[in-house]
Amino acid sequence: MSNRLAVVIVFVAGLLFVGSNSIYILNEMERGVLLRVGAVVNSDISTGIHLKLPFIEEVRAFDGRVLTVDAPAERFLTLEKKALIVDSFAKFRIKKVEKYYTATSGDQRRAEELLKQRINNGLRNEISKRTLHEVVSGQRDELMIDLVASLNEVANQELGVEVVDVRVKRIDLPQEVSQSVYNRMNTERDIEAKEHRAKGQELAVGIRADADRQREVILAEAYGQAEVVRGEGDAEAAGTYAKAFNEDKEFYKFYRSMAAYKRTFAQKSDMLILDPNSDFFKYLNNSTREK
């Protein structure tokens, strides 16, 4: 009885082992190939559960999502033979599974290394057709479009992958020329700053000259108006004096004499030597006789 049980257990275990080697699952994020004794028999496996011949057939599954590969920074020459250090990356995915497997043996790292080489070759070709300005800013988008198109032709035929996009992370000048470029840029900015300062000083001189001229004009006009007002006031005062004099000449003389006395004797230390019978003391003498 125990021997039968052992045989049953071994038989069931064998069925389970064979069954587990006969069934495989491919999810929606994977691409796979079915191999029979190392040869590809199916390179377009759909997602889901499938059967295969145990021990004879083998399934190799690969990541079917969009993957990222960082290309190492490389030195490239522009159209005018100026060196640039370009650091880039690319997005790719498997398009032809059979070609991908035969070109890389299904090794993603090998696929990335091969793609890095082709990215750098493509960048070298595209950058060599353009000037420094076009690479840095002027035609960068056009450069990337042309690079993706040319890479897709090569990568699709040789590696079985589709290059979705290529982007430049950084563009630097080589260390040996960075300082000289910085010094040249600094000199250009100094020259530009001096030109702006000179223009500003010239403009300031013009503004000051115009302000001084306007000031002189305003002062001259104000002085002229003041003289006119002063002349009108003097004329009006003279007219008032003349009118008052004509109305009472004696009182006017008396008023003028009193004012003269007030101004003359304003300081006690003042000394005035005159003839007592002088007309200056006319009203003082008359006031003494009246008393």
Question: Could you explain the architecture of this structure?
Answer:
The chain is an alpha+beta fold and 291 residues long. The chain has four domains: 2-63, no CATH class; 67-172, Band 7 domain (Tetrahydropterin Synthase, Chain A, 2-Layer Sandwich); 188-247; 248-290, no CATH class. It is 59% helix and 21% strand. The protein contains eight helices and eight strands; from the N terminus they run αβββββββααααβααα. It has helices at residues 2-22, 97-104, 108-127, 132-138, 140-158, 175-247, 249-264, 282-290, and strands at 23-26, 30-36, 39-42, 48-51, 57-63, 67-77, 83-94, 161-172. The strands form three sheets. Strands 3-2-5 form a three-stranded antiparallel β-sheet, with helices on one face. Strands 6-7-8 form a three-stranded antiparallel β-sheet, covered by helices on one side. Strands 1-4 form a two-stranded antiparallel ribbon. The protein is rod-shaped. The relative contact order is 0.07.
Helix-strand layout with pairing:
Layout: H1 2-22, E1 23-26, E2 30-36, E3 39-42, E4 48-51, E5 57-63, E6 67-77, E7 83-94, H2 97-104, H3 108-127, H4 132-138, H5 140-158, E8 161-172, H6 175-247, H7 249-264, H8 282-290
Antiparallel strand pairs: 1-4, 2-3, 2-5, 6-7, 7-8
Helix pairs in contact: 3-5, 6-7
Quote the average pLDDT. Answer: 80
The gross shape turns out to be: rod-shaped
The low-pLDDT segments are none
- What is the CATH third-level topology name of the largest domain? Tetrahydropterin Synthase, Chain A
Q: Based on the structure, what is the oligomeric state of the protein chains?
A: single chain
How much of the residues is beta strand, in percent? 15-25%
The total count of helices amounts to: 8
Number of strands: 8
Tell me the major beta sheet: 3 strands, antiparallel
Strand line-up of the largest beta sheet: 3-2-5
